[in-house]
From TrEMBL:
GO terms for cellular component: Golgi membrane; Golgi transport complex. Residues 452-466 have a biased composition (Basic and acidic residues). It is a peripheral membrane protein. This is Conserved oligomeric Golgi complex subunit 4.
Amino acid sequence: MPDAYGFRDTLTKDDFGYFMRGQTSPLRGPKEWRPKLISKPAVTTKSVPKAKVNDEKAKKLAEIEKEIAAVEHKLLTERDREDRLLNEIQSEISSSGLSEKDRITSFDRAVARLANHAETIGINASSLSTNLKSISVLAESISSRVAELDTAKSRVVECLQRVNDLRDLRTCSEGVEKAIKDEEFEEAAQYIHRFYTLEGVVFKMGSKFDSSDQNQSMKHSYDVLRKASETLREIAEKNFDAAVASGDTGSMVRFFKIFPLLNQHANGLQRFGAYLCRKIEKSCADHLKIMEAGGTEDARRNVLYSDTMTTVLEDIAREVVEYQPLIDNFYGPDKLLNLMEIIQIECDKQTTKVLDAFIKARQYEQKARQVRDYLRGSSNAANETKLDPIALDVLLSEVTILHTRSELYWRFLRRRLGEAPARPLSEGDDSQAPRSPTFAQADFDEDDELTDEQRTELQERQKKAKAERAKKLDAVLNRSQLGTRMQEILGKYVMMEQYYMQECVIRALESETVEEGSLTTSVLDDVFFIVRKSIRRSITSSSVDCVCAMINNGMTLLETEYLEALNSAIRAGYPSTGWTAEAYQHAQTAYNVLQHGRTVAEAGPETQKRVFLAALNNLRASQQSVTTLSNGLRDDFDHHLKQISATEKTKLDHSLTQFEELARKFEQTTAIAIGKLCHAAFRAKLKTAAEAYTAYSHELTDDEFTTFEAIDPFIDEFISQLDTNVHRFEELLVPENYEALLESVAAEAANQVERVVLKCSFNQLGGIQLDKEIRSLSSYLTTVVGWRVREKTAKLSQIANLLSCDSVEDGVNFFRQLQTSTSALSLNDLKTVLALRADLPKDTIKAIKM
């Protein structure tokens, strides 16, 4: 509806979707008063890729929606306020008494004035936009000029640097000759070193030399410094050699420090390395003389050569420790490896002398050949006297000490040489190449002034330097003559240690004895002592491969020689009981007496029993000893092999898994032996005792049931005989074997009673009596063996319950209850057991279906 001023209010949506008050009627008033419509610039929105809409933007959209709702609420509030103000204005105009025409005229004038102000604002905004564009163009011009100034400044700085470099070049050329003349060689070397740092600039300017006086002066400085460098190098070489010849260590060190300032690192290290080699040779000569004389202490003659090796390697290590700070400070940490390449040649030479003397004096090669021929079964071994393994004991110990000392030396070098980084820019490289302050590291600082091409080149040089250093380090540590010789000696050591262990175990088996009151024999302690001794001795060599080889040899020996010896006694069996078995054993004893010349006591069944039981106890104790040996070796590894790598630790762990497998084999053999013992010593007696059950009627009357309840003619006697036979072995077996025998006997007793029960016929009272007897037997076995025997008698107990049931339906219900838990009976067993009841209908039993 139009209001009092001719306007019609409507609610329309603006560009953002909000409702606003619109006017659709034409404006009133003179045309020149009407406001000019200023078009709004279209609002453009850039499409946002869907891939960028994530959780964070969803949150922002939600916040924007909240703000929009708040603005809508505020707009509605302001609209209400506007309506109230318009109503107030209208009421004021009405109350003023002006006519409608006057009111319209006044309002149109006000609107016209407002339109004029809006037009003025638009003109000012356009002017401001033009000014801003001018300012932007001016700013861009200033920015380009600033960039030009920065370029000019950098060139000026570079020029000033070049000027300073040229001044330094002139200063160096003027001062070097005077320093050499005054024998201030360190100062002269500093001038030369500064010259080498400026050499790149000189090279760049050398191609631009012309006839000007300034450039001629610069060329003259260049020539002077080059000539001074050669002169100073000759002086340093001459004076260094003279100091070495005279033994003047101070002068030697003085001139040794000059070489790196002249970029003569290789020259200085070569001369210093030659000096150290002569020094090492001289000190080792004294040690070799003492070794050839037999040492200084008679008590150390058995380890004479290992002691000599120790002193030689300690002298070399002492030289490295003494001069390493000098090398690091003046040549760089990476140069110690270059020096060690020179020293290692002398080290190999001196240690080879010690090893040659050891091999000759100890007849190491000859003994190794004898052992190899014997192990291979060569015909040469039959013609030679068998080597006494005890004589190898001291020799093998000395070999492990030799290798331990060598391993300690290699660890020392690895620790010292592994600390220095590989530097991609050595001092002898092209001096014009780019240098970075972080060239010794794997990454680069952000402030390194290097181009991408220079950075890539530097990284490639770094990789190459690292590979070259790793190759040199491997050559020094692993491919030196000392390392090669020690590997050869250690390989023969493993073979000789295997021979020693094998022969000692065979001797222990042949000299087996039984101490009074002991359930095991001497072979148990002897064999495991020998194996443990050999493996632990290999651990002292500090070689993981050697340790793994000896573990393999030890486990093979225990499985082939030791376990086979015990198994042969088990296979011979335990003498059976009964008159038939006794007759056979007496015949066998007589045959052994006549055939092998043994006495009756040695070949009789009692001896066979003792041998069988001793082997059985040894098997059980061996299982425990294998576990103890494995745990002990783990502790030894932690104590003696602390610095091994992860790969080497994996090797050791894998080798120790053989102990678990061997322990399982001992356990399996023990179980077989227990079964044989139970079969030979108990089956015949239990069978005879159980047969007595068939001598009684089990279709009992009430009077007979009462009599059986008072005095049971079977189960008491059966338990008595079982108890007597079992307790005889309590003092003959170790506790673990005795418990295992009880379990085996319990199972055998249950089987024999079950066998005779299935031969008999019962009525309900007979079944009830059987249930009581089975409960008595189970109670006894539980007391002796433990609750685990319940599983052995479960089937027998279920048979007794079925035989004592009231009817077939009762038996079927009981059987169904068993099916829901743990039943030891099948459907056929159910029918068979119920068929033993003489008072139950057979047809009903046969018709049972589940």
